[in-house]
# Entry
Amino acid sequence: MTDVDHAVARRRLPVITGILVLIALAILVSLGTWQLQRLHWKQGLLADIAARQAAAPVPLADIEAMAASGGDIEYRKVTATGRYINNKERHFFATWHGQTGFYIYTPLELADGRILFVNRGFVPYENKEPEMRMQGQLTDQQTVTGLARAKLAGKPSWLVPDNDVAKNIFYWKDLDVMAESVGLEKARVIPFFVDADSTPNPAGLPIGGVTQVDLPNDHLQYALTWYGLAAVLVVVVAISWFRKPGKAPRQ
# Structure
């Protein structure tokens, strides 16, 4: 390579570096802006959920109509009346305030014969079996108020264990299997759950009002991180490009 070629390569290098810096800067700024958009979306979602939880309960039929039309029923307050089928309850493994136990999902038979699975609340591990909490096994007609929860389309993650139907221990809320495992026809089962509110049960079990809205909102932190990296890149490049070279030492 001749001296001319070397000179051309040296002139071309800053141009390529500048292009790469601009690309990296654009990516960092775009990521920061995207996180701000996600922040606004998450804030709106949390506000919507809070409004739903604070609203007056609506009849079960209203939530059914919304679900049938493809509407979002999550966390909408609802009321339903029927009789619990206590001998067909299903147990979902859970923790509540640091204590290990189960959420009790009990079929509520409505006046028309259809079934609504109700998460009646939490019981400690040692109270899993119904005979350990007989006072809470309500037998008369009951009116339950709670939050509608959508049916899961499938297992949430491969990290979640498979449900142990034989031992009546569910690690994810598979409504179809819950119903099938106790001999309930799928056609009779309403295709969503209801989490009962905190109305006390006899002898205190199950403990209602266990719905947890777990939606992390770290988007502002992420946005500041990406914008911060973009700022650091600008400062580093500015120092590199505008720093004056030192004088060569005298011989």
Observations:
- DSSP finds four helices and seven strands in the chain.
- The CA atoms of residues 84 and 108 lie 4 Å apart.
